[in-house]
Recover the amino acids of this structure.
């Protein structure tokens, strides 16, 4: 898989709140496992998942930070 840029829901932008539609650009770097990805958001490497029902990525830049 080649890295690519897309828009995703970001944990620190409160995507868990009802009716939250805030998204930002991220870079999906690689697939880690089935539906789990490594993403870069504002220079921070973190975990992400893809929701196939709404075709959106969800990036956890609060609890899913990957320290390399």
């Amino acid at each position: 898989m080649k890295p690519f840029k897309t828009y995703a829901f970001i944990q620190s932008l409160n995507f868990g709140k009802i009716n939250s539609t805030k998204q930002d650009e991220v870079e999906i770097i690689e697939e880690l496992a089935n539906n789990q990805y490594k993403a870069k958001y504002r220079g921070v490497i973190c975990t992400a998942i893809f929701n196939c029902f709404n075709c959106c990525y969800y990036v956890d830049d609060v609890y899913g930070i990957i320290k390399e």
